[in-house]
Every structure is written in C-alpha cells, then in structure tokens.
Automatic annotation (TrEMBL), chain A:
Coiled coil: none annotated. The chain crosses the membrane at residues 33-54, 98-117, 124-144, 150-172, 206-226, 262-283. It is found in: Cell membrane; Membrane. This is ABC transporter permease. Residues 92-283 form the ABC transmembrane type-1 domain. GO terms for cellular component: plasma membrane. It comes from Catellatospora methionotrophica. The keyword Lipid biosynthesis does not apply. Residues 1-27 are annotated as: Disordered. GO terms for biological process: transmembrane transport.
From TrEMBL, chain B:
It is found in: Cell membrane. Belongs to the binding-protein-dependent transport system permease family. CDD domains: TM_PBP2. Keywords: Cell membrane, Membrane, Transmembrane, Transmembrane helix, Transport. This is Sugar ABC transporter permease. The chain crosses the membrane at residues 12-34, 75-97, 109-129, 163-186, 270-289. PROSITE patterns: ABC_TM1. The keyword Transit peptide does not apply. GO terms for cellular component: plasma membrane. It is a multi-pass membrane protein. Residues 72-287 form the ABC transmembrane type-1 domain.
Length: 298, 298
C-alpha cells in the first residue's frame, strides 16, 4: 500500500484498555449470538481471498479454470511455487536491500526531527510542521515527472539506490510526525530544561537521554517504512524496472499478462506478501500504532 | 528571553537537512511540475514556450472522447463507494468489538491483516475473485452465486461500463476497513468512561447512549477517517493497475498520468498531476490547519 499515512503516539497504539466496564445489564443471549455470529461471518469474508490464494497456488495447471475452482486441490503440488520463485527470487532479495535501509534511515531522521519539533519552540514552528505534514498527503504523481530527472542529475544509481533515497525522503513527514507525537507524550519538559542547564548540547541530550527511550517509536516507524517501501508500486514503476526493481514490479510482470498463470501468480502474491505479513503477525501491536499515526492527531 | 533565543538555534540546525530535502523534493518538484504544466512540451523535444492554462482547459474541452472527464467520473464513483464502504464496515466492526468482546485481539488481527498486503498482491487474487464470466462459465465469486442458485447476483464486476468502478472499490474496501475499524476503536476508547456511566444512570437505552452520547464524541475520528481514505483514493493507482491493468474502462487520473507519460506528453501529464494535487490540497490543507489549531487549544 503505498499509503503514506500514519500518526499516533505509539503509546496509544494498542487501543488502550479502559477501566473495567460498568455492566450495562447482562447482555441478552440473542444479542450475544448475533454479535459473535456477525464476527465469525466477517472473519470468513475477510479470509476468503487468503483461502483462494493458498488453495490455488497448490493446484496443478490441469485443475485451474475448471469446475471446482473453490475446492481444495486434488493433488497438491509445489510446481507453481517453484515457478513463482524463479520469477520473483532475484527481486525478493533486492526488496530487502531496499526496505531495510529505508526503514532504518528514515526512522533515525524522524527521531531527530520529532525530538526537535516536540520540544523546541522556534518562530514559525507550527507552520514548518504543517508544511512537513502536507508532504505525506501529496499524490506523488505531482513530483514524479521531474523526480526522474533530478535523481539522474544527482547521479544516484538507478534501481534500488534511487528507491532508497526516494522512500527515505518522502518518509520523513510520517516518521517526524510519529516521533513528535511520541516524544510529546513521554518526554517531560523538565528533562530537557535540566539538560540545557547542565550545558548538555542538543545532540548530546538527544543521544544520551532521548534515544535510549525511543525504542517504541522506532518500532512503529521501522515497521511502517519497511511495509510501505516493500509494498510500493508507484515509485517502483516510475524509477526502476524488472531487472533492478523491487518485488512488486516482478509480481506484476508475472501476474499481469492477458491470461496469467493463476497458480503461479497466486504463489507469487503469497511470496510477495510473506515478509510484511510476518511483520504484521509478529509485531501487530506496533503495526497498528503506525496506522494510527495516519490520523495526524495523537 | 535571551536564554530561549539561544536554545532554538541548534534545534533548527538539526532539522534543517530534512527541511531542505522536503523543500526541494516536495515543494520544489511541485513547482517544477506546475511550471511544466504551463508549457507546450508535448513530446521528447524541449518546450518552445508557455501556453498559459491551455493544458488545463484542454483537459475539459478538447480531450479525445472526454477522456479526462471520464477518468474523473470513475474517480468519483470509486471514491464514494470506497469511503462509504470502509467507514460503514469499519464502524460495524468497531461496534462489535468495542465493548470487551471475547478474544478481541483475535478478531482485530484478522480484520486488519489485509492492510499489510500490497495492492499489487491483493489485486492478483481479486482479479480472480471478480472473474467476469457468468452462467456456466462463471468463475470466482460469480461461481459461488451460480452454485447457490443466486445467479441474479452474478456481476460483470469492474467491466460494467456504468458501475465498474464500484466493483473496483471492493478490494480497496477489503484492504482498508480494518484500518478504519482501528481508528474507531481508538476513538471509542478515548471517550471518558464517566460519560457512559452518566448516560446509563440517566436511564439511556443502548441506542440512545450511542446516538446521543458516544457518536458525537467520534467526530474527530470520522474526520480523520474521511481524510485518510479520501486522499488514498485520489492516489489510487497500484490496485487498478493490478486488477484491470491500464485501460479505458477503469481509468482514473493517477493512471491517466502514467499512460500520458508513456506517450511522452509531459506537459499534459503534469497538468493532470497538478489537478490531482489541487483536489487533495483543497481538502487536506484546511484539515491540517484545523488539527493544528485544536491541538494548540488543548
């Protein structure tokens, strides 16, 4: 999802549990049944595409496009996975080379910016902050045409290095926002004032006092930037190709044909999604925290 | 005062690299695109001169087959269905989970997981699900309807000339309703418990409690949800490229820009991009100013 949107304090990430709820009367059995019935129904609907992906990816060519599309495979085969992997393998590694540096660099920049903007008041700070934020809402088409020329002119190598640079730059607004909101909740004003009294420099304060308590913020921005650069297609199609680009380009090449090999395409879609799904399953709490950031307000 | 003056300078220095990058790569490049959109650069050769707003007015007056207007209409249908769909579904899910559902984390995790998947990957499976074959050659969801004897529900999906874009919004709704749910859940949890208690003590029914006490408190949440889904919709590109590829029936401005660039009509592509940016700015800028103000008040 090229969805450059997030923004709440990681503190507010896992929806906070309120105090024990006062009993609004015992829920009637009918309401209870209805509630859980609906929850189950929606789960089935939401999981349906995943079922199709998994089932189809294990079918042999013979079983696709005939009756029983929704059935389990009669014979399970890894052939389509092998085919998909040979198409996606090279870009799979490249996408890690893209997403990991993007996640780390933009988080570090975001932390520094968020730290300054959460506590240092300088003239026009609010305007500057708003101008930064607007950067995460722009349709990137509005910068894409000259962007190609500028990165060429800067001499950044095409493909992954260019994409690292671009995702890092356009990730600055969201990372700054996440850290600003986070620091606004955790850093007491007095801490910074005390540090200034000590004569501790800004950078020293940041390094020795702030960075050590920033882990929760980093988790959110790292997940966010990793996911959005992994899933991006727009920058990728403008600034790279199937030989030097990330996995979304390769998947589109595999699946985008007029009459695609659906078994291989779906195996490919699963391979493409595994890293971000893994991140989501393992770090879901913080992932949601990233999402909340999109609402701008903490 | 003298003390304060000294303290904000190092902060400004620390964030200045980011400010410069954003000044160049957001505002500078937007300026470049605007400038390009005012010239007559319609092929690989350099522009001969400025043509005022011609490239913009031509989009509305002399675009072949009213292609731009057609893409705007598609965008409107898509946006309305997408926004209403995600907000209704997200609200229903939040309401089902909001009052301490059993295993809340489990439901939440499943409803949200599509968010971790890229549009390109989900496009692969939705293209299969929204198979346009009907009757005996029905595939995907149509096959289920056909099998259940609900043939009247079979749909041409995104190939319907009038309502195709509504079908195109279905995968997007699948991906982002969980996000809106998370926003609503956070909204509900942010409402002070005393408000509920007071309403219950006053003898409010559950319906009255939600209608008159809780929903009014959710206005900021709904505003965020509208802004986030709305601006995502304006940028929608990956999903459409993945489900249908670039084609007339499902063309939106973001795809039109790409198609126009392939023909090297840079000035026209720039004009469409700037138009898209303006739509987003008209909505987002007042929102950011509003958020800024209400933050200052609190």
């Amino acid at each position: 999802m090229s969805t450059e949107t997030v923004a709440a304090a990681p503190a507010a990430t896992a929806p906070p549990r309120g105090a024990p709820a006062p009993r609004q009367g015992r829920p009637r059995p009918v309401a209870r049944t209805l509630r859980y019935g609906l929850l189950v129904l929606f789960v089935l609907i939401v999981l349906m595409p995943l079922y199709v992906l998994v089932v189809t990816s294990f079918k042999s060519g013979r079983e696709i496009g005939v009756n029983g599309q929704w059935n389990l495979p009669e014979t399970w085969t890894f052939a389509s996975w092998a085919k998909a992997w040979s198409a996606l393998g090279p870009s799979f590694g490249r996408t890690f080379e893209l997403a990991i540096p993007v996640a780390l660099i933009s988080s570090l920049i975001g932390a520094a910016n968020g730290f300054v903007l959460s506590r240092w008041r300088f003239p026009g700070a609010d305007v500057v902050f708003t101008l930064i934020l607007f950067g995460m809402f722009i349709p990137y088409q509005a910068v894409m045409i000259p962007l190609r020329e500028v990165v060429l002119w800067l001499g950044i190598a095409p493909g992954i290095p260019t994409l690292i640079f671009v995702h890092t730059v356009y990730g600055i607004p969201i990372c700054t926002l996440i850290f600003r909101n986070y620091y606004a909740t955790i850093i007491p004003e007095e801490l910074i004032e005390a540090a200034q009294m000590d004569g501790a420099g800004l950078l020293r304060t940041f390094r020795s006092l702030i960075l050590p308590v920033s882990i929760p913020g980093f988790v959110v921005t790292v997940i966010w930037q990793f996911t959005s650069s992994w899933n991006d297609y727009l920058f990728a199609i403008f600034l790279s190709n199937n030989r030097n680009g990330p996995i979304t380009i390769a998947l589109n090449a595999l699946a985008g044909a007029q009459s695609p090999d659906y078994a291989a395409a779906m195996a490919g879609a699963l391979i493409t999604s595994l890293p971000t799904l893994l991140v989501y399953v393992l770090l879901g709490r913080w992932f949601i925290g990233g999402l909340m950031a999109g609402s701008v307000k903490s | 005062m003298r003390h304060r003056r000294r303290t904000w300078i190092p902060g400004l220095l620390l964030i200045s690299p980011s400010l410069i990058l954003l000044a160049v790569f957001v505002y500078g490049l937007i300026g470049w695109t605007v400038n390009l959109s005012l010239q007559d650069r319609h092929n690989a050769r350099p522009a001969k001169g400025y043509v005022g707003l011609d490239n913009y007015t031509k989009l509305f007056t002399s675009d072949i087959n009213d292609r731009f207007v057609h893409s705007l209409k598609n965008l409107v249908v898509f946006t309305l269905v997408f926004m209403v769909g995600t907000i209704v579904l997200g609200l229903i899910w939040a309401l089902l989970l909001e009052r301490r559902a059993k295993a809340e984390g489990f439901w939440r995790t499943i409803y949200l997981f599509p968010m971790a998947v890229s549009f390109v990957a989900s496009g692969v499976v939705w293209r299969w699900l929204m198979n346009t074959g009907q009757g005996d050659s029905a595939g995907g969801i149509n096959a289920i309807f056909h099998g259940l004897g609900l043939s009247f529900l079979e749909s041409p999906w995104w190939t319907d000339p009038d309502w195709g874009m509504a079908a195109m919004a279905v995968p997007a709704i699948w991906q982002l309703s969980g996000y809106v749910m998370a926003l609503f859940l956070a909204g509900f949890r942010g409402i002070p418990e005393e408000l509920r208690e007071a309403a219950v003590v006053d003898g409010a029914t559950t319906f009255q409690l939600y209608r008159q006490v809780l929903f009014p408190q959710l206005t900021p949440t709904i505003l965020s949800a509208l802004i986030i889904t709305g601006h995502m919709s304006m940028k929608m590109f990956d999903l459409i490229m993945s489900v249908s590829g670039a084609q007339w029936l499902t063309e939106v401005p973001a795809v039109y820009v790409w198609q126009t660039l392939l023909t090297r009509d840079y000035a026209k592509a720039a004009a469409i991009s700037v138009f898209l940016l303006l739509i987003v700015a008209v909505v987002v800028v007042p929102y950011l100013i509003h958020v800024n103000r209400s933050e200052k008040r609190s």
